[in-house]
Amino acid sequence: MLSLLTEHPLICAMLLILIDLGLWRLLSTMGSGWRLLVRVVIFALFSVLLFNEGLNPLEPAPWPENVPLHLAATGLQIGWWLFGARTLTVLIGAVMMQRVGHTGRLLQDLLGAVIFLIAVIAALAYVLELPVKGVLATSGALAIIVGLALQSTLSDVFSGIVLNTTKPYQLDDWISIDGTEGRVTDIDWRATRLQTAQGSLAVIPNSLAAKAKIINFSRPSDMFGVSITLQVSPHARPNTVIDALERAMQGCRFLLDTPAPSVALKGSSSTGVEYEISGFVASMSEKRTVRNQLFDLAYRHLQASGVNLLSSVEPTLSDNLSRPRALLDSSPIFSTLRQEEKDTFSQNMTLQTFRAGETILEAGEVSDHLFIIESGVVSVTLNRHGSPFESGRMGPGEVIGEAGILDDSSVPAQFTAKTFCGLYRIEKSYLKPCLDARHDIGDAMKTLLDYRLYKAKTLTQELPVAEAKKGFLQWLRNRV
Fold first, then answer.
1. Per-domain residue ranges for the chain?
2. Which residues, listed in sequence order, are joined to residue 400 by a DSSP beta bridge?
3. What CATH architecture applies to the domain 321-460?
4. What is the pLDDT of residues 91-120, one digit of tens each?
5. Total-model pTM
């Protein structure tokens, strides 16, 4: 077998091409560096075999009298040009991926097409000795016909080149192209692909993207703007509305402190006044959650200030209800009380105020009263490994101190006034007999307490430490 290979090096050359194709498939799971090295080495061996056998790819095959051998040699010479074009394309692609990343793939493909075209023309001219000028003239006329037929596609291709050169966006950027918003998942010859917030795929032709208005939410840094607009009664005093919306803004802890969020009056008319809350979040996936939370907080804080959303009339409390009585109506825990029970409850609620930074309930403190937040923002702080961190914020309608009322226990969280707060206080001596009589209210408070204890445990528990992999290199480092 070895003697056969040495006597017929052309067979070795054919085997090298087959080995290259096979190894390129087998080494697909390994690093691209190994695949590139194998291809370069095989191409070098292939070139050495051809030149040693006297097969110069710049000349026709030297055995015109032996037709089978001549055809085989001609095929190997043409294969050398194509093999070289492919190797050069892979080398250029590896260099471009290191310098410009995935966005250079389109330019890499175009260069590869040009290199292969040159290789084919060179093979026709040197190996087959065809009149290249006539071929080029014919191919030029054909190119004009094909170009006219594929005018739209070529427009997409060249627009793709412009987009890859100017780089208004890259992979994984969140962008908006002509009103279509999504994350860039791919940029190819023809189109840019976006994954929208709804999970669908939007395919936008490059020619359209090159002409359209592009907004890149991921530049210049990892900050994503979020804003909501609200319309309130024109009879409400702007300062009252702005104060309430600023409390709502502070109640959302996902908004970044820098740049600072803000509230602005956008415009007014006889039917309503428009306000805007704007800020920034750290992740695009948080935008929808933050917008929903801001709307809910704005509604609650405006209601606590006596202002209605989307209303052209100043709200009035029906039947002249007091603020504590209206607060019981809006509370999810006490809303099931009968009207007369709510009236009695409201008469036993005492307003207590706290300045910003003042502690409302210490961590581990057993409370002998229940607080219902009337206005303001309350910060909830937990401890993990001895370090305090803010786990949440509370607003109007939420309650504090239910653990001490239910079973004389406490929660591991500290409640602190983040803004000036007004809380209505209900003493345990009055509330406890009511809970014994109304099990639905006690069950609602118990469900709330269980949820808060579960969240506190989840947020403060220690995360498992991943063990480092112990391989040969790690063993060697430990021995050094």
1. 2-149, 167-216, 224-316, 321-460
2. 371
3. Sandwich (2.60)
4. 777 766 555 555 456 666 667 777 878 888
5. 0.59
